[in-house]
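ok trying this again, last paste got cut off
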Amino acid sequence: MNNTITTDGRQNMAVISPIWQNPAPVSRPCGREDGSSSKTDLLNNKNIHSSKMALLTDENLYALCKTYGERARIWRQRFAGLLPEVFKRKLYEKKGFHSIFEFAKKLAGMSEEQVRLVLNLEKRFETMPALRSLLTTGKVSVNKLSRIVSIATNKNEMFLANQVQVLSKNAVETLVRDEKFAMGNEKENDNKNGILDVNFGHKSGKKLDGDFADFVSQNSSQEPLFAPKSLPGQMCFDTKNAKSNSHSSINSEADSATDPSTEKDENISVENPNNCAGKSNPLNLSAEVQEKLLKLQQKGLDVNELLKEFLQKREEEIAQRKAEIGRKIMEEMEEKQINSWQDNSENSTKNLPINSPTNIPQTALPANGSAKHQKSASPSPSRHIPISIKRILYLEHGTKCSIRNCQKLSEQIHHVRRFSAVPSHDPRYLAPLCKAHHELMHCKDLDYIEIRKRA
C-alpha cells in the first residue's frame, strides 16, 4: 500500500505495483550502437504516434522516414551477418525453428533467396578474411558484396574491401564491368595487376600530377574465381548469356557469309570491340558520304588510308589546340604569381623603418612575401570551366564517357590533377566521365579519400 497525492493535494490510498514490475518504456534510437542521432528532437518526441502524424510537417515526416529506413537497413545488414554463425551452430533448431529460412523470415522478414545468398557469400569468402569480415559485421550490404565476388581473389581482397566501403552500388557495378572487360582483352594487354587501372602515362599509375589524361589503355585481369550465374547483379556477364551470345554471333556470321544481301553493308559496318555481347554496330553514314567513298574506291584510292589520315590529322589538331590553351594557362598562372609576389614585396618595403638601407636584397625581406601570404593575396580561382575548353573536350570525346568500354553519357569533367592542388583547367588534364567512373577516379586517389574523411 502506497500513498498517492491527487491533484487537489489530498492523499489517496491505492495499490501501486513496484516500478521494477512495470517499467516505463525506454525509447532508444536503433541506428547506431551509441544510440545517437542527428534527428534527436524528432526521435525522442514521445507524442509522435498515429494520432499525431497529421501535425507533422512534410519535412519532418520525410526526415523520419529517411531515418527509420536507414536504421532498418543497417540492422537488417547486421542480422544477415549473423546468419552464417547461426547456421553453423544449428541455433535455429535449438530455438524450435524448422530451418534457417524460417528463422530468418520470422525474425527479420528475409526471403529464402536472401538467406541462400548470404550463406553462399560467407562460404566463398572463407579464404578472404577482409571481405568475410565486412559480411559478418554488416558494414557492407550483401548487394555490393555479391557484385564483387566474381572478381575477388586473395590478392585484391584488400583493395575491394576498401572500395566497397566508399563506392556506391552503381560505381561497384561499373568497377566489376570494367574488370570483366579487361579480362576479355587479357591477351592484348601486358599489365596484369588484376584491378581496374587507368593509364595516366606510367604503367604503375602512381604519378597523377605530371601525366596527361589517357583513359584509353586499360589492363587485364585474372580469370574469375566464381561463376556469376548464381549471384544477382552481374548484368550481361552471365556465363550462360556469354555462351549464347557467342553462339548467336557465330550463327550470324555464318548467315551473313551465305546471304548475299549482307554484302552491301560490308563497307559500312564495323564490329565494336567494346560490346560485351559481341554484336556489330553499323556506322550511321549518310547516303551522300557512302556515295563519295564508293566513288573514291572505284577510282582505285584506298579509302581506309584516307580515313586514317583524316583521323590522324584530327587528333593532331586537337592535341595542338589543347597544347596552346595549356601554354596560355601556364603563362597566366606564372604572371599572377609574379604580380602577387611584387605586390607583397612592395608592401613589405613600405613598412620598413626610415633609417633602414634602401638597397636591401630581396632575400632579406620579411616573411610577408612567403607563399602563404602570396596565396592569401591572390584571388581564389574559379571552378567554372570555360565553354572554349568544353568545346575541345566535346570535339575529342563527344557526349559519351571517355573510358573506352563505357557508353554512358558524360556528366562530370574530371581533373586528373586535383583542382585544389593545381587550380587550372588545362584541357590536357581534363576528361569527361560518367558519374560512376568519376567516383571511381576519385576513389583511386588516396589523398582525396583522406581529405574527404577529415572533412
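PB: full thing came through this time. DSSP finds 16 helices and six strands in the chain.
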